[in-house]
Amino acid sequence: MDYGTLRGIFTVLIFVLFIIIVLWAYSKKRKSNFDDVANSIFDENDKSDDNNDNEVTNKQETNNNV
Description:
- The protein is mainly alpha-helical and 66 residues long.
- The protein has one domain (3-62).
- Helix content is 79%, strand content 0%.
- It contains 3 helices and no strands.
- It has helices at residues 3-25, 28-39, 46-62.
- The longest helix is centred in the N-terminal third of the chain and has 23 residues, at 3-25.
- The chain is flat, with a radius of gyration of 24 Å.
- The protein starts with a helix and ends with a helix.
């Protein structure tokens, strides 16, 4: 088996893997899971936003080197 044949086999394997991933990603069974994950950013509580604001404020208040 020469180098060209090995590269050809590797290319075909990568292409088959790509097709499998595309079919998995666009399958109808996965659509609801992907939609849930995409909308999960909107399900977070407002408390986490308040904590992030406090951390930014604390960092700004303690930075007196400017």
